[in-house]
């Protein structure tokens, strides 16, 4: 009987795996390449040629139009504002609550953990949440976005587990040296938990940057809408052939693609700097429950 040669099959397996990865990469990159190249194409060429990957003539008119569009720039700055302040609120609330729940001597800790777990299984609902926001007079305020999504239960549980992995002896030594609870948290716990902090900072930043539903629900003033809401309005106007009141302009495909590129660039630029923390942040935080 012929024996199976593991070494002989290894090159074949490597070739097949590499080929599948290359095909998958092309499938993922092709739509992004099409969006980027179409954003540099003139409107006349898009209408005449239909589908193409590389335009015959390159132009930045679409980006120039967006940069001069007051609504687009306002929504872009609103998105930056919401992302920065919202992420600060998210990480402040999540890290502080996770640090408290990581202490086994905390009274009522199990009940609080059950309450956090309960919110992962059952939500309050759209109407009750809206009534609470309205009763707090937060309609048309960015705080309606910050507070309704201040703490993600899953992020809280993983960060709590990460804090529990820090040796108790290290905290006890710091307290013996006169380190207070706030100083212990800011000078020792957070620096040691940098992988988890970086990971969930990016998660919250993506969540805030892509804010759409809550913004439509709680923000009635169009001047406060973030970028995602503006993109949706722009797509609707383009699809319905509606004219922009300010400039009597029908959004062309190149303008829509340019808006998508601008909306994606900030996250793409930040992601490589935090990617190295992902595996360590997620795996180390899931060791303990």
UniProtKB/TrEMBL annotation:
Domain of life of the native organism: Bacteria
Main localization category: membrane
Domain ABC transmembrane type-1: from-to ranges: 76-274
Location within or outside the cell: Cell membrane
Membrane-topology descriptor: Multi-pass membrane protein
Keywords: Cell membrane, Membrane, Transmembrane, Transmembrane helix, Transport
UniProt-listed CDD domains: TM_PBP2 (cd06261)
Keyword Chloroplast: no
Listed transmembrane segments: 12-34, 76-99, 111-131, 143-163, 184-206, 255-274
Pfam family, one: BPD_transp_1
Cross-referenced InterPro entries: MetI-like (IPR000515), MetI-like_sf (IPR035906)
Keyword check for NAD: no
Family: Belongs to the binding-protein-dependent transport system permease family.
Entry-linked PANTHER family: ABC TRANSPORTER PERMEASE PROTEIN MG189-RELATED-RELATED (PTHR43744), POLYGALACTURONAN_RHAMNOGALACTURONAN TRANSPORT SYSTEM PERMEASE PROTEIN YTCP (PTHR43744:SF9)
Protein name: ABC transporter permease subunit
Organism of this sequence: Paenibacillus glycinis
């Amino acid at each position: 009987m012929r024996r199976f040669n593991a070494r002989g099959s290894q090159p074949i397996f490597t070739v097949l795996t590499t080929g599948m990865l290359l095909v998958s990469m092309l499938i993922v990159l092709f739509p992004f390449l099409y969006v980027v190249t179409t954003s540099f194409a003139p409107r006349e060429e898009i209408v005449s040629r239909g589908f193409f990957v590389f335009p015959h003539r390159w132009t930045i008119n679409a980006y120039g139009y967006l940069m001069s569009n007051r609504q687009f720039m306002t929504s872009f700055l609103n998105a930056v504002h919401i992302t920065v302040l919202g992420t600060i609120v998210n990480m402040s609330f999540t890290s502080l609550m996770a640090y408290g729940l990581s202490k086994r001597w905390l009274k009522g800790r199990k009940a609080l953990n059950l309450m956090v777990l309960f919110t992962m299984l059952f939500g309050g609902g759209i109407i009750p949440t809206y009534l609470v926001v309205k009763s707090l007079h937060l309609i048309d305020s960015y705080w309606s976005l910050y507070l309704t999504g201040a703490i993600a239960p899953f992020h809280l549980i993983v960060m709590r587990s990460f804090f529990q992995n820090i040796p108790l002896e290290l905290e006890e030594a710091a307290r013996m040296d006169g380190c207070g609870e706030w100083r212990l948290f800011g000078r020792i716990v957070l620096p040691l938990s940098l992988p988890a902090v970086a990971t969930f900072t990016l998660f919250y930043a993506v969540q805030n940057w892509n804010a759409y539903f809550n913004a439509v629900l709680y923000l009635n003033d169009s001047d406060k809408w973030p970028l995602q809401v503006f993109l949706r309005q722009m797509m609707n106007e383009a699809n319905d052939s509606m004219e922009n009141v300010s400039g009597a302009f029908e959004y062309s495909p190149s303008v829509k693609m340019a808006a998508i590129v601008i909306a994606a660039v900030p996250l793409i630029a930040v992601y490589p700097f935090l990617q190295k923390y992902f595996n360590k942040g997620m795996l180390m935080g899931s060791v303990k429950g």
